[in-house]
Amino acid sequence: MKALLVCPAERPAVPLLQRSSPLVLLPLFGRCLLEYWLEQIVTLGASHVLVSAAHEAREVRALVGNGARWGLKAEVIVESCELTQTNARREYCGQSESAWLAAPNDVTVLDHFPGLPQHPLFQSYAGWFAALLEFLPHAVGPTRIGVRELKPGVWVGMFTRISPTAQLRPPCWIGERVRVGPHSIIGPMAIVEDRVVVESDCEISTSAVGAQTFVGKCTEVRDSLAWGDSLLNWRTESFVTVPDPFLLSALGRPSLSLTPADWLAQLARRGSRSPRASRALEQQLPLRRDR
Amino acid sequence: MTIHRQNEILSITGVKELGLANRDAFCTEVRAALPAGIRHIVIDFSETDYIDCGGLGALMMLRKAARNCERGISLRLVNPTPPVRHLLNLTKMASLFSIEDFVITNAPAPRESTSAVPAI
Q1: What distance in Å separates the CA atoms of residue B73 and residue B57, rounded to the nearest whole number?
Q2: pLDDT digits (tens, 9 = 90+) for A18-29
């Protein structure tokens, strides 16, 4: 059985969410929306999935591959613009309807979590946060490894260190490889993505902290989305770039968009910065291998 | 930045930015404008599009100076823009100041403001 997943191209209501990566690849509880949907499609009985992507096809293809990870045959189709469900059905499902999953699962626009069409993700920041909270109890799917429910409503990922004096108030989600410092309070309604560092005496409530974000000592994140040094109040949609990195900053950049060519270029740049390489370049001599 | 004195009120308006680069000048100017008789300082942040830890430090210094003054000077921050509000909330400093949204007038300010800090 076939299914078509349509990646949303652009959503002007939530520019911050699509600043660093395509919307379907945004980390949500440690995984991206496309991963949740691929799992869902498999449970619905699909064996062949087409993923329609507009501008972000390269990144989508890097994630999906040939679909073997999900036990699927997957293809990424590049479109000039986002397909509507009607257009997608007409274009792809028209001739052999029996080979496709039954509607509405045959064509899905990935703008909501599986099973939560009433909570659109990309119409507003408040809607996005509400959808996250709604999906929070379902984020621990059967294929998720290592996430523990420390107490009712408090989920913690692998390799996370939480100070014994920190307070975790349900509902909250703390991802993988997170550090939570002493006397910090996480929750209620807090989502802390993977590889976040929360220093001591912080308070995070009714907020989402994006992956690889540093939350400095004594800071309070409330009603906000904090992504690196970007802080957005999801109620008022007011936004600020925090100028002081010791308060809020990005710990690193996601490497998903790097191709092998990018990696090689980075490696070459690093090599050229080493003193030995610099000397060799200055002397215009070839580099010799160390014994 | 414009500093205007009206009876017991010292109004500071036109603060474009308050950061490490200009905090010393800001503090010096405000302190110099604090002759006897001033009981209220009102800082209008409606034009401020940048504030950092240096600016927050300047506000804290001003607050301390105001509290230590024998006359008991009140310090109020009015019309803060989103960057100012965000940073005050992020650093938990919003609770230390009286923050209000209104247009500065020449009417005397209340001795002790009871307005709640608006949530952003």
Answers
A1: 18
A2: 888 899 999 999
Would you call B119 and A244 a contact, using CB atoms and an 8 Å cutoff?
Answer: no
Interchain pair B91, A246: CB under 8 A = no
Q: How far apart are alpha carbons B119 and A174 in whole angstroms? A: 25
Predicted confidence (pLDDT) per residue in B68-78, tens digit: 887 788 999 99
A220 at B interface, C-beta within 8 A: yes
**Fold category of B2-100 in CATH:** Transcription Regulator spoIIAA (3.30.750)
Distance, CA of B96 to CA of B56 (rounded, Å): 11
Mean pLDDT value across residues A58-64: 93
User: Is any Cβ of chain A less than 8 angstroms from the Cβ of B95?
Assistant: no
Residues A29, A175 contacting (CB under 8 angstroms) = yes
Chain B neighbors of A220, CB-CB under 8 A: 89-92
**Do A150 and A47 form a contact (C-beta atoms < 8 A)?**
no
Nearest to B90 among A238, A239, A248 (CB): A248
What domains lie within chain A, and their CATH numbers?
Answer: 2-121 (3.90.550.10), 148-250 (2.160.10.20)
